[in-house]
Amino acid sequence: MNREWLEKDFYKELGISSGATQDEIKKAYRKLARDLHPDKNPGDAAAEERFKAVSEAHAVLSDPEKRSEYDEARKLFANGGFGRGGFSPGGGYGQGGFNDFNLGDIFGGAAGSTADGGLGDILGGLFNRGAGGATRTSTRPRRGSDVETETNLGFREAAQGVTVPLRMTSPSPCTTCHGSGAKPGTSPRVCPHCNGTGVISRNQGAFGFSEPCEDCRGTGSIIDDPCVDCRGTGIQNRTRTITVRIPPGVRDGQRIRLAGQGEAGLRGAPAGDLFVTVHVSNDKVFGRNGDDLTLVLPVSYSELVLGTTVSVPTLEGRVGVKVPAGTADGRTLRVRGRGVPKRSGGAGDLLVTVKVAVPPKLDEEAAEALRHYAEAEKAGGFDPRAGWAGA
Ligand SMILES: [Zn+2]
Ligand SMILES: [Zn+2]
Fold first, then answer.
1. Which CATH superfamily is domain 286-356 in?
2. Is 278 marked as a binding-site residue?
3. Distant-in-sequence, close-in-space partners of 132: CB < 8 Å, separation ≥ 6
């Protein structure tokens, strides 16, 4: 239950500052509790949720002991003491700083805690585990980080697949100091304040508390002569360009995972993955419906009535599409296998939708012919509105 505290801002819930006095807490709570009370807001689920949240916030903050636990925990987590991915000078390279933890480890390890589940116990347990770091194995090789990037593709590139260069900037171990953060020829020394554990323990009332050492910021080591190239961080942003094959058939907004193309792992660990989000531009002619390629084919009325064969573009060359005599406007004709390539082999279909283009102006000869046609059509018994609208 208490680990949920870390995700909650009880001060914000009550609308007070973190330095609020007990009096201010009480006042804020009373006012909110009055306004949000279920009796006053019957059937208002949102008010009820807020009422519960406010009550919980008050229960913790009005109890000085719980409040100080809560404050401590928030301070630690706000400092990013845990779960900062990647490596860090000293700590990450095997000396056992906080960076070897992630939250999953912490809570997993503390689950067997014997005490009443107080936050102090959970944290105390985990810090003690960390403080006994001499025997802890922290040399587990770490997989490289995943890298996110994006690329813009043309419609046809995305449909057919394309090889693109991707420029990526990502943090890598500094090449000058090999990630130690110390000037070449020097090395980080063990922090005398925490004896290299990165943790300072102190007792406060009933609880034993541990917190990151301030002298070494929890890394367990001190750098006297920082590396000039990375200013002691051990990290450099490196830009690299890799060539990536985008498979055919990707859609706009799709995120592609390229296994092992992310950051290199440390100490021989596997590399992370590269995720590429693809943006696909529209095409003037083609649209897509899954693996099918769509297009609208402008035709004349007479072409629909008499039938014709029209040359139509595809992703690869043109193809003759037969429009049968008597084709209705708006009908879709299917050309098998001329759509978007499928990853499983083969391709979708090309869907050609015919759309009548009406001439904006006719010359006299055509108009005259059309008048004759209209008469013949009527005489032939064609009624476009037969059976329409109840007629
Ligand atoms: Zn460096
Ligand atoms: Zn220290």
1. Urease metallochaperone UreE, N-terminal domain (2.60.260.20)
2. no
3. none
